[in-house]
Amino acid sequence: MTTDSVESSGRASFPGRSNRIRSLWLAALIAALVVLCAFSVAIGTREVVWSDIVAALGGQVDNIGQAAVTVRIPRTVLALLAGGALGLAGAIMQGVTRNPLADPGILGVNMGASLAVVVGVAWFNIASAQAYIWTAILGAGCSAVFVYTIGSLGRGGATPLKLALAGAATSVAFSSMVIAVVLPRNDIAGGIRSWQIGGVGGATFDRISHVLPFLVVGFAISLLSARKLNSLALGDELAAGLGERVAIARAIAAFGAILLCGATTAICGPIGFLGLVVPHLCRLLVGVDHRWLLPFSALGGASLLLAADIVGRIIARPAELDVGIVTALVGAPFFIWIVRRQRVREL
Protein backbone atom coordinates (compact mmCIF):
# COMPACT_ATOMS: atom_id res chain seq x y z
CA MET A 1 0.00 0.00 0.00
CA THR A 2 1.37 3.42 -0.95
CA THR A 3 0.78 7.08 -0.25
CA ASP A 4 -1.78 6.98 -3.09
CA SER A 5 -3.97 5.20 -0.56
CA VAL A 6 -4.17 8.33 1.62
CA GLU A 7 -7.07 10.71 1.10
CA SER A 8 -6.62 14.47 1.13
CA SER A 9 -8.18 14.44 4.60
CA GLY A 10 -5.26 12.39 5.86
CA ARG A 11 -7.19 9.15 6.26
CA ALA A 12 -6.42 5.82 4.67
CA SER A 13 -8.38 5.15 1.49
CA PHE A 14 -9.03 1.65 0.13
CA PRO A 15 -10.37 1.82 -3.42
CA GLY A 16 -11.84 -1.20 -5.13
CA ARG A 17 -15.25 -2.54 -4.19
CA SER A 18 -18.18 -0.15 -4.14
CA ASN A 19 -20.28 0.31 -1.04
CA ARG A 20 -23.28 -0.95 -3.00
CA ILE A 21 -21.63 -4.31 -3.63
CA ARG A 22 -20.52 -4.52 -0.01
CA SER A 23 -24.07 -3.75 1.15
CA LEU A 24 -25.42 -6.55 -1.02
CA TRP A 25 -22.91 -8.98 0.45
CA LEU A 26 -23.86 -7.76 3.92
CA ALA A 27 -27.54 -8.42 3.28
CA ALA A 28 -26.70 -11.89 1.92
CA LEU A 29 -24.57 -12.71 4.96
CA ILE A 30 -27.27 -11.59 7.38
CA ALA A 31 -29.86 -13.67 5.51
CA ALA A 32 -27.57 -16.71 5.66
CA LEU A 33 -27.09 -16.16 9.38
CA VAL A 34 -30.86 -16.07 9.95
CA VAL A 35 -31.27 -19.34 8.02
CA LEU A 36 -28.48 -20.96 10.03
CA CYS A 37 -30.13 -19.86 13.28
CA ALA A 38 -33.35 -21.54 12.17
CA PHE A 39 -31.50 -24.74 11.27
CA SER A 40 -29.60 -24.68 14.57
CA VAL A 41 -32.83 -24.60 16.53
CA ALA A 42 -34.52 -27.25 14.34
CA ILE A 43 -31.71 -29.78 13.78
CA GLY A 44 -30.29 -32.13 16.35
CA THR A 45 -30.48 -35.66 17.71
CA ARG A 46 -34.24 -35.26 17.89
CA GLU A 47 -36.07 -33.67 14.96
CA VAL A 48 -38.63 -31.05 15.95
CA VAL A 49 -41.51 -29.55 14.00
CA TRP A 50 -41.98 -25.82 13.51
CA SER A 51 -45.04 -25.78 15.77
CA ASP A 52 -42.82 -26.94 18.65
CA ILE A 53 -40.26 -24.26 17.82
CA VAL A 54 -42.88 -21.52 17.82
CA ALA A 55 -44.38 -22.82 21.07
CA ALA A 56 -40.96 -23.02 22.75
CA LEU A 57 -40.09 -19.48 21.65
CA GLY A 58 -43.31 -18.40 23.32
CA GLY A 59 -42.27 -20.05 26.59
CA GLN A 60 -44.40 -23.19 26.27
CA VAL A 61 -42.72 -26.52 27.16
CA ASP A 62 -45.27 -29.35 27.00
CA ASN A 63 -43.37 -32.10 25.19
CA ILE A 64 -39.87 -33.40 24.43
CA GLY A 65 -39.62 -31.50 21.17
CA GLN A 66 -40.32 -28.17 22.83
CA ALA A 67 -37.87 -29.03 25.62
CA ALA A 68 -35.20 -29.75 23.00
CA VAL A 69 -35.77 -26.34 21.44
CA THR A 70 -35.33 -24.58 24.78
CA VAL A 71 -31.93 -26.27 25.07
CA ARG A 72 -30.88 -25.36 21.53
CA ILE A 73 -31.77 -21.67 21.76
CA PRO A 74 -29.00 -20.69 24.25
CA ARG A 75 -26.62 -22.97 22.35
CA THR A 76 -27.39 -21.04 19.17
CA VAL A 77 -26.89 -17.71 20.94
CA LEU A 78 -23.53 -18.84 22.34
CA ALA A 79 -22.39 -20.04 18.91
CA LEU A 80 -23.28 -16.63 17.46
CA LEU A 81 -21.39 -14.74 20.16
CA ALA A 82 -18.34 -17.02 20.23
CA GLY A 83 -18.06 -17.23 16.44
CA GLY A 84 -18.43 -13.48 16.06
CA ALA A 85 -15.83 -12.87 18.76
CA LEU A 86 -13.25 -15.23 17.26
CA GLY A 87 -13.80 -14.02 13.69
CA LEU A 88 -13.42 -10.40 14.78
CA ALA A 89 -10.39 -11.18 16.96
CA GLY A 90 -8.70 -12.88 14.03
CA ALA A 91 -9.22 -9.85 11.78
CA ILE A 92 -7.88 -7.55 14.52
CA MET A 93 -4.77 -9.68 15.05
CA GLN A 94 -4.04 -9.84 11.33
CA GLY A 95 -4.41 -6.07 11.17
CA VAL A 96 -2.30 -5.35 14.24
CA THR A 97 0.56 -7.63 13.19
CA ARG A 98 0.09 -7.21 9.41
CA ASN A 99 0.42 -10.97 9.36
CA PRO A 100 -1.83 -13.04 7.04
CA LEU A 101 -1.24 -16.09 9.25
CA ALA A 102 -2.32 -14.42 12.49
CA ASP A 103 -5.04 -16.22 14.41
CA PRO A 104 -5.85 -16.52 18.14
CA GLY A 105 -4.98 -20.22 17.96
CA ILE A 106 -1.87 -19.99 15.80
CA LEU A 107 -0.42 -17.09 17.83
CA GLY A 108 -0.91 -19.02 21.08
CA VAL A 109 -3.48 -16.65 22.59
CA ASN A 110 -6.21 -19.27 23.01
CA MET A 111 -3.80 -21.80 24.45
CA GLY A 112 -2.45 -19.18 26.86
CA ALA A 113 -5.99 -18.58 28.10
CA SER A 114 -6.51 -22.35 28.33
CA LEU A 115 -3.35 -22.88 30.37
CA ALA A 116 -4.28 -20.08 32.75
CA VAL A 117 -7.72 -21.59 33.38
CA VAL A 118 -6.30 -25.09 33.89
CA VAL A 119 -3.69 -23.80 36.36
CA GLY A 120 -6.40 -21.81 38.16
CA VAL A 121 -8.64 -24.86 38.48
CA ALA A 122 -5.88 -27.32 39.45
CA TRP A 123 -3.79 -25.17 41.80
CA PHE A 124 -6.10 -22.42 43.05
CA ASN A 125 -9.48 -24.19 42.96
CA ILE A 126 -11.25 -21.43 41.04
CA ALA A 127 -14.89 -22.28 40.50
CA SER A 128 -16.92 -19.15 39.78
CA ALA A 129 -17.71 -18.00 36.25
CA GLN A 130 -16.14 -14.59 36.88
CA ALA A 131 -12.90 -16.21 38.07
CA TYR A 132 -12.80 -18.37 34.92
CA ILE A 133 -13.26 -15.34 32.68
CA TRP A 134 -10.73 -13.06 34.37
CA THR A 135 -8.17 -15.87 34.52
CA ALA A 136 -8.64 -16.67 30.82
CA ILE A 137 -8.29 -12.99 29.83
CA LEU A 138 -5.13 -12.66 31.91
CA GLY A 139 -3.68 -15.79 30.33
CA ALA A 140 -4.58 -14.60 26.81
CA GLY A 141 -2.96 -11.22 27.44
CA CYS A 142 0.25 -12.66 28.88
CA SER A 143 0.51 -15.13 26.00
CA ALA A 144 0.01 -12.38 23.39
CA VAL A 145 2.73 -10.23 24.96
CA PHE A 146 5.07 -13.20 25.24
CA VAL A 147 4.64 -14.26 21.60
CA TYR A 148 5.04 -10.69 20.31
CA THR A 149 8.19 -10.22 22.41
CA ILE A 150 9.75 -13.45 21.16
CA GLY A 151 8.74 -12.66 17.58
CA SER A 152 10.32 -9.20 17.85
CA LEU A 153 13.77 -10.47 18.78
CA GLY A 154 16.57 -10.44 16.24
CA ARG A 155 17.01 -8.68 12.93
CA GLY A 156 13.91 -7.27 11.23
CA GLY A 157 11.69 -7.12 14.31
CA ALA A 158 8.30 -8.82 14.46
CA THR A 159 8.02 -10.22 10.93
CA PRO A 160 4.93 -12.31 10.02
CA LEU A 161 6.97 -15.50 9.76
CA LYS A 162 8.70 -15.00 13.12
CA LEU A 163 5.38 -14.28 14.84
CA ALA A 164 3.78 -17.37 13.31
CA LEU A 165 6.70 -19.57 14.37
CA ALA A 166 6.81 -18.06 17.87
CA GLY A 167 3.05 -18.54 18.23
CA ALA A 168 3.14 -22.14 17.00
CA ALA A 169 6.00 -23.01 19.36
CA THR A 170 4.22 -21.31 22.26
CA SER A 171 0.99 -23.16 21.54
CA VAL A 172 2.79 -26.51 21.56
CA ALA A 173 4.62 -25.65 24.78
CA PHE A 174 1.46 -24.46 26.53
CA SER A 175 -0.45 -27.53 25.35
CA SER A 176 2.22 -29.77 26.88
CA MET A 177 2.06 -27.76 30.11
CA VAL A 178 -1.72 -28.23 30.23
CA ILE A 179 -1.24 -31.99 29.99
CA ALA A 180 1.42 -31.89 32.69
CA VAL A 181 -0.88 -29.98 35.04
CA VAL A 182 -3.94 -32.18 34.39
CA LEU A 183 -2.21 -35.59 34.32
CA PRO A 184 -1.91 -36.10 38.09
CA ARG A 185 -5.40 -34.70 38.76
CA ASN A 186 -7.91 -37.42 37.93
CA ASP A 187 -10.62 -35.45 39.71
CA ILE A 188 -10.60 -32.69 37.08
CA ALA A 189 -9.09 -34.49 34.07
CA GLY A 190 -12.40 -35.51 32.45
CA GLY A 191 -13.95 -32.06 32.55
CA ILE A 192 -10.78 -30.30 31.41
CA ARG A 193 -10.25 -32.63 28.45
CA SER A 194 -13.82 -32.16 27.29
CA TRP A 195 -13.54 -28.37 27.65
CA GLN A 196 -10.23 -28.30 25.78
CA ILE A 197 -11.80 -29.69 22.62
CA GLY A 198 -13.86 -26.53 22.28
CA GLY A 199 -17.64 -26.57 21.98
CA VAL A 200 -20.91 -24.77 22.60
CA GLY A 201 -22.87 -27.70 24.03
CA GLY A 202 -24.44 -27.29 27.45
CA ALA A 203 -24.90 -23.54 26.99
CA THR A 204 -27.35 -21.73 29.26
CA PHE A 205 -28.43 -18.12 29.39
CA ASP A 206 -27.01 -17.93 32.92
CA ARG A 207 -23.53 -18.86 31.66
CA ILE A 208 -23.85 -16.48 28.74
CA SER A 209 -24.87 -13.61 31.03
CA HIS A 210 -21.56 -13.86 32.91
CA VAL A 211 -19.44 -13.53 29.79
CA LEU A 212 -21.65 -11.11 27.86
CA PRO A 213 -20.29 -7.84 29.41
CA PHE A 214 -16.72 -8.82 28.49
CA LEU A 215 -17.75 -9.67 24.94
CA VAL A 216 -19.68 -6.40 24.55
CA VAL A 217 -16.65 -4.37 25.65
CA GLY A 218 -14.38 -6.42 23.40
CA PHE A 219 -16.69 -5.98 20.40
CA ALA A 220 -16.92 -2.22 21.01
CA ILE A 221 -13.16 -1.69 21.34
CA SER A 222 -12.42 -3.85 18.31
CA LEU A 223 -14.99 -2.25 16.00
CA LEU A 224 -13.94 1.26 17.04
CA SER A 225 -10.35 0.40 16.07
CA ALA A 226 -11.21 0.11 12.37
CA ARG A 227 -9.82 3.50 11.30
CA LYS A 228 -6.67 3.02 13.36
CA LEU A 229 -6.07 -0.36 11.71
CA ASN A 230 -6.50 1.27 8.30
CA SER A 231 -3.76 3.71 9.24
CA LEU A 232 -1.50 0.93 10.55
CA ALA A 233 -1.95 -0.93 7.26
CA LEU A 234 -0.05 1.89 5.53
CA GLY A 235 3.06 1.16 7.63
CA ASP A 236 4.19 2.51 10.97
CA GLU A 237 6.08 5.48 9.57
CA LEU A 238 3.26 6.70 7.34
CA ALA A 239 0.69 6.08 10.09
CA ALA A 240 2.77 8.18 12.48
CA GLY A 241 3.03 10.86 9.80
CA LEU A 242 -0.78 10.95 9.64
CA GLY A 243 -0.84 11.70 13.37
CA GLU A 244 -1.53 8.18 14.60
CA ARG A 245 0.06 7.05 17.86
CA VAL A 246 1.15 3.72 16.49
CA ALA A 247 1.99 1.90 19.74
CA ILE A 248 -1.19 3.06 21.48
CA ALA A 249 -3.38 2.23 18.47
CA ARG A 250 -1.86 -1.25 18.22
CA ALA A 251 -2.22 -1.84 21.99
CA ILE A 252 -5.88 -0.76 22.13
CA ALA A 253 -6.88 -2.92 19.17
CA ALA A 254 -4.95 -5.89 20.58
CA PHE A 255 -6.64 -5.41 23.96
CA GLY A 256 -10.05 -5.71 22.32
CA ALA A 257 -9.00 -8.94 20.62
CA ILE A 258 -7.58 -10.32 23.88
CA LEU A 259 -10.87 -9.62 25.68
CA LEU A 260 -12.79 -11.47 22.97
CA CYS A 261 -10.42 -14.45 22.92
CA GLY A 262 -10.14 -14.77 26.68
CA ALA A 263 -13.88 -14.52 27.34
CA THR A 264 -14.73 -16.95 24.54
CA THR A 265 -12.11 -19.48 25.63
CA ALA A 266 -13.39 -19.32 29.23
CA ILE A 267 -16.89 -20.38 28.24
CA CYS A 268 -16.29 -22.53 25.13
CA GLY A 269 -12.71 -23.78 25.41
CA PRO A 270 -10.02 -23.11 22.79
CA ILE A 271 -11.55 -23.15 19.29
CA GLY A 272 -8.90 -22.94 16.59
CA PHE A 273 -8.61 -21.72 12.98
CA LEU A 274 -11.86 -19.72 12.94
CA GLY A 275 -9.99 -16.44 13.28
CA LEU A 276 -7.72 -17.43 10.39
CA VAL A 277 -10.31 -18.61 7.88
CA VAL A 278 -13.00 -15.96 8.29
CA PRO A 279 -11.01 -12.71 7.71
CA HIS A 280 -9.46 -14.12 4.53
CA LEU A 281 -12.86 -15.07 3.13
CA CYS A 282 -14.29 -11.68 4.09
CA ARG A 283 -11.44 -9.86 2.32
CA LEU A 284 -12.49 -11.58 -0.89
CA LEU A 285 -15.95 -10.07 -0.45
CA VAL A 286 -15.30 -6.54 0.86
CA GLY A 287 -11.59 -5.84 0.43
CA VAL A 288 -9.12 -4.68 3.07
CA ASP A 289 -10.92 -1.64 4.49
CA HIS A 290 -11.31 -2.51 8.18
CA ARG A 291 -14.46 -0.39 8.48
CA TRP A 292 -16.14 -3.12 6.44
CA LEU A 293 -13.84 -6.04 7.17
CA LEU A 294 -14.35 -6.07 10.94
CA PRO A 295 -18.18 -6.23 10.93
CA PHE A 296 -18.07 -8.80 8.12
CA SER A 297 -15.57 -10.91 10.08
CA ALA A 298 -17.83 -10.88 13.13
CA LEU A 299 -20.87 -11.93 11.09
CA GLY A 300 -18.81 -14.45 9.09
CA GLY A 301 -17.36 -15.96 12.26
CA ALA A 302 -20.83 -16.34 13.76
CA SER A 303 -22.08 -18.00 10.57
CA LEU A 304 -19.13 -20.38 10.28
CA LEU A 305 -19.23 -21.52 13.92
CA LEU A 306 -22.99 -21.98 13.77
CA ALA A 307 -22.62 -24.02 10.56
CA ALA A 308 -19.84 -26.10 12.16
CA ASP A 309 -22.08 -26.82 15.15
CA ILE A 310 -24.93 -27.92 12.86
CA VAL A 311 -22.60 -30.16 10.82
CA GLY A 312 -21.23 -31.68 14.04
CA ARG A 313 -24.73 -32.66 15.10
CA ILE A 314 -25.59 -34.23 11.73
CA ILE A 315 -22.53 -36.31 10.82
CA ALA A 316 -22.19 -38.13 14.15
CA ARG A 317 -25.81 -38.91 15.01
CA PRO A 318 -26.99 -39.93 17.56
CA ALA A 319 -23.86 -38.44 19.14
CA GLU A 320 -22.23 -35.20 17.97
CA LEU A 321 -18.83 -33.68 17.18
CA ASP A 322 -17.81 -30.58 19.08
CA VAL A 323 -17.27 -27.49 16.96
CA GLY A 324 -13.58 -27.44 17.86
CA ILE A 325 -13.09 -30.66 15.89
CA VAL A 326 -15.13 -29.46 12.90
CA THR A 327 -13.33 -26.10 12.66
CA ALA A 328 -9.97 -27.89 12.86
CA LEU A 329 -10.96 -30.18 9.98
CA VAL A 330 -11.88 -27.12 7.90
CA GLY A 331 -9.12 -24.81 9.10
CA ALA A 332 -6.06 -27.04 8.79
CA PRO A 333 -6.29 -27.45 4.97
CA PHE A 334 -7.10 -23.74 4.68
CA PHE A 335 -3.99 -22.89 6.69
CA ILE A 336 -1.85 -25.01 4.35
CA TRP A 337 -3.40 -23.22 1.35
CA ILE A 338 -2.66 -19.80 2.86
CA VAL A 339 0.94 -20.78 3.56
CA ARG A 340 1.45 -21.97 -0.02
CA ARG A 341 -0.34 -18.96 -1.49
CA GLN A 342 1.62 -16.42 0.56
CA ARG A 343 4.96 -18.19 0.01
CA VAL A 344 5.95 -18.09 3.66
CA ARG A 345 9.65 -17.72 2.85
CA GLU A 346 8.85 -14.30 1.37
CA LEU A 347 6.63 -13.02 4.22
UniProtKB/TrEMBL annotation:
Transferase among keywords: no
GO MF annotation: an example: transmembrane transporter activity
Listed InterPro entries: ABC_BtuC-like, ABC_transptr_permease_BtuC
Subcellular location: Cell membrane
Membrane-crossing residue ranges in chain numbering: 24-43, 73-93, 105-126, 132-151, 163-183, 208-226, 247-272, 292-311, 323-340
Keywords: Cell membrane, Membrane, Transmembrane, Transmembrane helix, Transport
Primary location: membrane
Membrane topology summary: Multi-pass membrane protein
Signal peptide boundaries: none
GO biological process: siderophore-iron import into cell
Annotated Gene Ontology cellular component terms: plasma membrane
Pfam families with a match to the protein in the record: FecCD
Family: Belongs to the binding-protein-dependent transport system permease family. FecCD subfamily.
Protein name: Iron ABC transporter permease
Source organism (scientific name): Phyllobacterium phragmitis
